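Dear support,

We are seeing what looks like truncated structure output for some complexes. This example has two components. We would appreciate it if you could run it in full and send us the complete token output so we can diff it against ours.
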Amino acid sequence: MTTLYARFAAHIDAALDALEAEGILAAGVDRRNVTVEPPRDASHGDLATNAAMVLAKPAGMNPRVLADALTAKLGALDEVSSVDVAGPGFINMRLSEDAWRSEVRMIADAADNYGRSTMGAGKTVNVEYVSANPTGPMHMGHCRGAVVGDALASLLQYAGNKVIREYYVNDAGGQVDVLARSVHLRYREALGEDIGEIPEGLYPGAYLVPVGHKLATHHGDKFVTAPESDWLVLFRETAVADMMDMIRADLALLGIHHDVFSSEAVVQREKKPEAAEAFLRERGLVYDGELEAPKGEVDPDWEPVTLPLFRSTQFGDDQDRPIRKSNGSWTYFGADMAYHFQKAQNADALIDIWGADHAGTVKRIKAAVEALTGGTKPFDVKLVQMVRLLRGGEPVKMSKRAGNFVTLADVVREVGKDVVRFTMLTRKADAQMDFDFAKVVEASKDNPVFYVQYAHARICSLKRKVAEAGIDAGTPDLSLLDATDLQLAQLAAQFPRIVESAAVAREPHRIAFYLYDLAAAFHAYWNAGNDDPERRIFLVNSAQTTSARLFLASAIGQVIANGLSIMGVAAAQEM
RNA sequence: GCGCCCGUAGCUCAGUUGGAUAGAGCACGAGCCUUCUAAGCUUGGGGCCGCAGGUUCGAAUCCUGCCGGGCGCGCCA
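Here is the complete output from our reference environment:
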């Protein structure tokens, strides 16, 4: 038993096969653009397909002729009550009520698995997200990418992919040396020294105090006056490890757990960049050359230097990119390139979630992945736009310098994990968004989190009431569901295709918008009972109808719960 | 100067990958609670989908050029 939309896609495919066998349709015409969807206007029918229009031209046929031939086949199906051709060649189908009833039953049978797809065919997708520098706690700047990446990973799993959730720890650059020096100050402080103001350029945050204490406890004062070379590595590794513990704890507050943490330092220690460079040099994709002077503001200190450059212009970049600095060490890009090569070894496809401020480097890394994998590993970079933090419409002031940035932990503590996660998914990732502390906790339909939760809570409440009344809802007679009831089923039946299209587009926000629509339809259904008592779900005088409608309502609740689970949001039992 | 993203109702945003008469919420107007959660529902007005061309049966969606906004353009990370 397959879901309704999947089944009709198969029906249409079979009908086209039959037409090919009968010689009506030329064989081998590409069917990829054929779709089955609900028509925009419900008066057109329950399902529509564009098959005739899409296939007519490549098959050298008149769309109406093809549509008529298809119509004859589709009209013969038991589930179809009527078919007609409209406009330029749309085929509109109206389904029997039993088709929708059986979909309701299917939701109940599949339960937590309703909407799961095999589309991903078990292919492994590596999703790299967060990857915040290990120099302090998570702040709100990291939040959206974290939620979008995590929800996308869940979505892909739901759509049939194996998923690796990965975090790239940038523990090899200059910023972790700065971290180590900042910790050295805190270490001296822990030993009783008055360190005064934290100098410009070091991390001022108090979160480094415990790291200093720990080092003081373990090592006493032997590094106080020692040269930096004696303690830098130890302090750096200790600090990074502690920062990563903090970050993991922060992510756990959002329900986020990565499978793999990859260290940039380890990538370098294992000579991965050297291997990548050698591979690319062999193919003439790395060469020694000079960079052009930067455009825009003229830097008086600019001097041309010969560096090993990756030929990213060959893949559409504006400029070839250096993989090593003049001192011989790896650039961020040089190491990152090797890191992506490493990820590609264990996955069929790669996805990175980046902040929009890194948009400028997308081309070079895509170029590198293409060069290193010969284009065999699809690789997407999803950019996540900035979030503006507001409180009652006023921007929240933040200063990184002063160390008073808004931490993720604070926000989760204030408004809750579910609100943060849902809200972050109520916009396309590449659109800027506002996050207003006042609005996201508002209990109104202005706030989609509550609106969707409320629908689920109402359904749960209903189940409790019916159970308390001692009605046996075990074997409902679904023939008691009428056309009005079944409209809800039609919307619920779309869930599997929403999951698939969201997974293909890599846009988890579509789940949020769909759930909002479904919740709206349920609230309307519920309220119909306020105007007309006969339309209530719980009818005291009819256990039969009550159990049928409760079965339907439970199915809606199931779909809401499944959607929320993809988003990582709890389905409220009561509110 | 160059690159990326964006431009849809007064405001905040969707728009099923090119489909039929472009949709929600907020705000504004008019209604709906003795009984399943009114934290809700019903209903009205409101649009040159930034502009101009192009591609085709068909464009908010794809291409080109403008206009306007955001982000980014170092051997940083």
